[in-house]
Specification:
There is one protein chain. By secondary structure, the protein is α+β, with helices and mostly antiparallel strands. It has two domains: about 5-15 and about 90-165, PH-domain like (Roll), CATH 2.30.29.30; about 20-85. The chain is about 45% helix and about 25% strand. It has helices at about 15-20, 20-50, 55-90, 150-160; strands spanning about 5-10, 90-95, 100-105, 110, 115-120, 125-130, 135-140, 165. Strands 1-2-3-4 form a four-stranded antiparallel β-sheet. It has a four-stranded mixed β-sheet with strand order 7-6-5-8, covered by helices on one side. The radius of gyration is 21 Å and the shape is elongated. Keywords: Membrane, Transmembrane, Transmembrane helix.
Length: about 170
């Protein structure tokens, strides 16, 4: 199979947050909450006109869902961002081999066989590897791999991960 590869790099907290997609997740949660508030307002308007006496129920449910999405965006996601930044930010060393991945850094040291890897996302700025029971994400920035070896590294990663390898444009 492919030759074992070791990559060393340093990640900042902003890189971790952006590459894991947590900022866009928060933005989408806020858009969903806004849409639910508008829907609840429409249902409430129908109820207040008196034409549809039971429209208060969907209005209340949509309002509750909007509240849940706001709590998710403003309470849960910041905690998730801080936890991932603490776990992944700093200097890290990753070893790729036929038997699996070994990821070691200041905040974490994990090893996974390729069978436990659920996805390898080839994004424009990094490879994001998701593995384990808790679906933990690990980031390998593309600038950590020398430019002359990048294509060979991507082919080896695709060979090792198999169907889990997916390419993303953004």
């Amino acid at each position: 199979m492919a030759e074992p590869i070791t990559v060393e790099f340093e990640l900042g907290a902003d890189e971790v947050t952006s590459e894991l997609g947590l900022r866009s997740e928060r933005k989408n949660s806020l858009y969903t909450a806004a849409l639910m508030v508008v829907g609840a307002g429409v249902c409430l308007a129908f109820y207040l006109q008196g034409d549809r006496p039971k429209m208060w129920m969907p209005a209340a449910l949509l309002g509750l869902y909007a509240l849940i999405m706001l709590v998710y965006a403003y309470v849960h996601l910041p905690r998730k961002m801080r936890a991932n930044a603490a776990r992944l930010a700093g200097t890290a060393r990753v070893k790729f081999a036929d038997d699996g991945i070994r990821y070691g850094g200041a905040g974490t040291a994990k090893g996974y066989s390729w069978g436990k890897v659920s996805s390898v996302l080839d994004r424009p700025g990094a490879w994001v590897i998701t593995a384990g029971k808790k679906s933990e994400g690990f980031i390998i920035p593309k600038q950590a791999v020398p430019a002359d070896q990048a294509e060979q590294f991507a082919l080896a990663l695709r060979e090792w991960s198999g169907k889990a390898y997916k390419q993303r444009k953004r």
